[in-house]
């Protein structure tokens, strides 16, 4: 299956499903992109400043500050992922976002994976949980991948590991 979440693996102690969003730009690539953009923008800005349009330089600096902020946000979220561990009678969901981590534990017998579809243009939500406590998972993957993940989770939850 060629999807953005890695195929599930049986790693000795149960079933592990790792869900990662597509990250086509590595941290090193982000730094290189910023360096090249800064060089081009500042070269153009200095050229215009030498011709008398000195106000181009502050706006070039502002543009690079906005790009730097966006790249910093992407860098902080480069390692975001969700790990679902189905082991024996327990289901653990570990969500890692922006350097913070949340863990939710459920009893396997009661856990249900539900794909909530909306009638409008909004994407569906995949929720996992029981007894009124639910966790949204797979928000960073495509609709088709979310549907496949929901089917695989329901199959894994009902079968013996």
Describe the 3D structure.
The chain has a 5-stranded antiparallel beta sheet with strand order 1-2-3-4-5, with no helix packed on it. The chain has a 3-stranded antiparallel beta sheet with strand order 6-7-8, with helices on one face. It is an alpha+beta fold and 161 residues long. The chain contains 3 helices and 8 strands, in the order ββααββββββα. It is elongated. Mean pLDDT is 85; it is low at 1-12.
Q: Largest sheet, described in full?
A: 5 strands, antiparallel
Main sheet: strand order: 1-2-3-4-5
- Beta content comes to 25-35%
Radius of gyration: 22 Å
State the distance separating the first and last CA atoms: 21 Å
Which structural class should the secondary elements be placed in?
A: alpha+beta
Q: Total number of β-strand segments?
A: 8
Helix and strand string, N-terminal first? EEHHEEEEEEH
Q: What gross morphology would you assign? A: elongated
Q: Level of helix content?
A: 25-40%
Mean pLDDT: 85
Low-pLDDT regions:
1-12
Tally of alpha and pi helices: 3
In short:
This protein is α+β, with helices and mostly antiparallel strands and 161 residues long. It has helices spanning 27-50, 56-76, 143-158; strands spanning 9-10, 15-19, 81-87, 90-97, 100-107, 112-116, 125-130, 133-137. The protein is built from three helices and eight strands.
């Amino acid at each position: 299956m060629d999807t953005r979440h890695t195929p599930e693996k049986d790693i000795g102690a149960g079933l592990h499903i790792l869900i990662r969003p597509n990250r086509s730009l590595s941290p090193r690539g982000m730094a290189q992109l910023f360096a090249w953009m800064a060089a081009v923008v500042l070269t153009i800005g200095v050229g215009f400043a030498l011709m008398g349009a000195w106000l181009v330089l502050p706006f070039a600096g502002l543009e690079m500050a906005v790009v730097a902020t966006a790249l910093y946000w992407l860098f902080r979220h480069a390692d975001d992922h969700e790990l679902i561990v189905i082991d024996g009678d327990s289901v653990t969901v570990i969500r890692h976002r922006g350097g913070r981590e949340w863990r939710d534990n459920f009893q396997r017998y009661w856990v249900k994976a539900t794909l909530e579809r909306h009638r409008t243009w909004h994407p569906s939500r995949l929720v996992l949980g029981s007894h009124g406590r639910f966790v949204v998972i797979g928000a960073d993957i495509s609709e088709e991948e979310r549907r496949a993940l929901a089917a695989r989770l329901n199959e894994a939850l009902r079968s013996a590991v």
